[in-house]
Design brief:
Elements: H1 6-58, H2 64-78, E1 84-88, E2 94-96, H3 98-102, E3 117-123, E4 126-137, E5 140-149, H4 151-199, H5 217-266, H6 271-302, E6 311-314, H7 315-333, E7 336-341, E8 347-350, H8 352-368, E9 375-383, E10 386-393, H9 400-403, H10 415-420, H11 427-437, E11 441-446, E12 452-459
Parallel strand pairs: 7-9
Antiparallel strand pairs: 1-2, 1-5, 3-4, 4-5, 6-8, 9-10, 10-12, 11-12
Helix pairs in contact: 1-4, 5-6, 6-11, 7-8, 8-11
The chain binds adenosine-5'-diphosphate.
């Protein structure tokens, strides 16, 4: 089922809450008014009863017939609308005012009248409030019942209820209209943001959502979305640049292969010329294969941990294996290669091949950007809960302003020189990708012309494994 819009839902909530508030208010007010009207009527009845009691006590010794006569005279003249009934408990004689003659009240046992009783009665078509009270005057005990017609009070209550019933729907409709308008007004910027957001695509990622200055959640929302757009834009730019750089780097060796083959085929040549051409083609195709391999490694680093085969491994063993291979390279290049590795095993959780690649990249660079006589130093130490691999060389070094950029993809400090040495500027980016994936860090310290020191830190496994690791 399609959900209602937020604006409509807010309005419905508003309506429901308003309806409930109106109901509680209306019913509450009606009861308070009713109670007040009854209190006033009861007070009037109480006063009348007190008057009558005084009257009866003043005439406690006169015969009943005379009392009746006086009552008729006094009460009927005073108020022709009186509703009075007095019954003498002892002799049963009863005085009733005119209306009650026609609508007699039911008899009331005296023992039920410990204290005055107030009650509502309907006589004929009329409503009354009655007080029933026991009065003692000398030898006589009377049960006195006085009525107060309630038609005015009932009318007032009916009027009040009518007003409520009339005004409640009007108020409700007005309130829901105002509620709808308010919610629409409040949510209008969200609609505007959504409209702008819909127009943003890969082609106009530099566009931004309208800047709101409302100082509320909506401003925070638009600011957050704009920040997110900025991040997406820079990631998008990085990818576009990367694709352009990668295509460029791939095009160069392929163009060289093409040219070499074309030149060789232009006319017939002797075997040595063909061999030379084929060798050149081999060099370039190796370079292409290496580049593709590096691009794949980067893609693997980007895709997150799934591409890795994480297991516990001993860094000392891993570095010893690499060092053996690089010692041969050092002697070929006439460079001094020293290694200082921890004697104790240093177990880490990591991908063996990926970590080996990191070490190879750093050592390759250390030899590449170095010249004879020079040195390369590889060390592995245990520092707190981390293992630290250091590759130090005595080569050309890296200027300070370049140091933050060398980890970027395709970044080379000396473009011509790096390319001649076979690098396309992906090695350190790959190394950083792998190390970060394995919760480590890589840093560089260097001064131009004074060699460079690369440091890789990896978290050690919390409880060192005592027995040898499986191969
Ligand atoms: P490349 O394949 O070009 O070596 P890297 O990403 O490994 O790419 O290195 C990026 C750049 O950083 C290199 O082009 C080089 O200029 C510089 N660099 C890396 N390692 C060293 C080092 N040990 N000494 C001097 N410069 C280095």
């Amino acid at each position: 089922m399609k959900r209602l819009s937020i604006g409509l839902r807010l309005t419905l909530w508003y309506l429901a809450i308003f309806l409930l508030a109106e109901l509680i208010f209306g019913v509450g007010m009606w009861f308070i008014l009713r109670q007040n009207l009854y209190d006033i009527a009861d007070q009037a009845l109480k006063d009348q009863a007190a008057d009558l009691e005084r009257f009866l006590q003043a005439r406690q010794n006169i015969p009943t017939a005379q009392l009746e006569a006086e009552l008729s005279e006094d009460y009927k003249i005073e108020s022709s609308e009186d509703y009075l009934q007095i019954s003498d408990v002892a002799d049963g004689s009863i005085y009733r005012s005119r209306f009650l003659e026609e609508h007699p009240l039911p008899p009331l046992p005296v023992d039920e009248l410990g204290k005055p009783r107030y009650e509502n009665r309907k006589l004929g078509k009329r409503r009354f409030r009655f007080i029933s009270k026991k009065m003692v005057a000398g030898q006589h005990v009377y049960i006195v019942q006085i009525g107060h017609p309630m038609h005015e009070e009932v009318e007032t209550l009916d009027d009040f209820r009518r007003y409520l019933l009339w005004f409640a729907p009007i108020l409700l409709v007005t309130a829901s209209g105002v509620g709808y308008w308010l919610s629409h007004r409040a949510l209008a910027p969200v609609d505007a943001l959504a409209r702008t957001a819909r127009t943003i695509s890969g082609h106009n990622l530099s566009s931004r959502l309208e800047k709101l200055n409302t100082g509320d959640e909506l401003q925070r929302l638009s600011d957050t979305l704009n920040e997110m757009l900025a991040r997406i834009e820079s990631a998008f730019l990085r990818i576009t640049e990367f694709t352009a750089d990668a295509s460029h780097e791939l095009r160069t060796p392929i163009a060289l292969i093409h040219t070499e083959a074309e030149l060789a085929l232009r006319r017939s040549r002797d075997a040595s010329e063909y061999r030379e051409a084929l060798q050149q083609i081999l060099v370039e195709s190796d370079r292409t294969a290496k580049l593709i391999e590096e691009l794949l490694a980067l893609a693997r680093a980007d895709s997150g941990g799934e591409a890795l085969n994480i297991q516990s491994l001993d860094l000392v063993t891993l570095l010893k294996e690499s060092a053996t291979k690089w010692a041969q390279v050092a002697s070929l290049r006439n460079l001094q290669f020293e290694q200082r590795l921890e004697a104790q095993r240093l177990p880490v959780m990591g991908d063996k091949n990926a970590l080996r690649r990191v070490v190879d990249i750093l050592l390759d660079n250390a030899f590449k950007y170095n010249s004879s006589p020079g040195s390369v130093h590889l060390s592995l130490e245990h520092k707190g809960d981390r293992a630290v691999i250091t590759v130090q060389d005595s080569g050309v070094g890296i200027a300070e302003e370049e140091q933050s950029k060398i980890f970027e993809r395709f970044y080379r400090v000396d473009k011509a020189r790096s390319r001649a040495q076979g690098g396309v500027g992906l090695g350190l980016a790959i190394a950083q990708g792998i190390v970060t994936q394995q919760r480590g860090s890589i840093t560089v310290e260097s001064r131009s012309g004074n060699g460079a020191t690369f440091r890789v830190e990896l978290p050690l496994i919390a409880t060192p494994v005592r027995h040898p690791l499986p191969a």
